[in-house]
Amino acid sequence: MKHAFPVRATLATSAALLATMGVTSAAGSASAHQESSAAAQARPDRQPSEARIAALFDRWNAALLTRDSARVTALYAHDAVLLPTVSPQIRTNHAEIADYFDHFLEKKPVGEKVRSVITVLDENSAIDAGLYRFTLTEKDGTKTTVDARYTYAYEKIRGRWLIVNHHSSVLPAAG
Q: Which pTM was predicted?
């Protein structure tokens, strides 16, 4: 993706890579954490609230209710990645994302969050992960529900919060 990676994600990825190679540095880790904490504390008024990030799902769900794939797709960055619930194809551009929603919207999906865990990474990026449930309506009027796991990675691009990565998968049976 062309988007800048948040500091925490870059640090976590670097630490994970170093750990797999057997390299650890408690001092380096503590220093990096202090730097990212100091940066966050320096601009607390610019950090979006968890409620602001939670509202992005409501915006997305409202777009689903329009049954207009273009409106839903407009909420995704141009180079976003969508790993959809009911398709094996990875969608990596607006045309592919719109194609998925053209078909998904035929089932008149209505989503509701069951559980959400929001992590605000910085003033321009956040992650919302959890469980949601969709009520789908078939052409004959039959309604079904699908419980799924989700992760939305959001980034503020040119002043607008957009989805840069969206993963959704059917919730496995308890086992």
A: 0.74
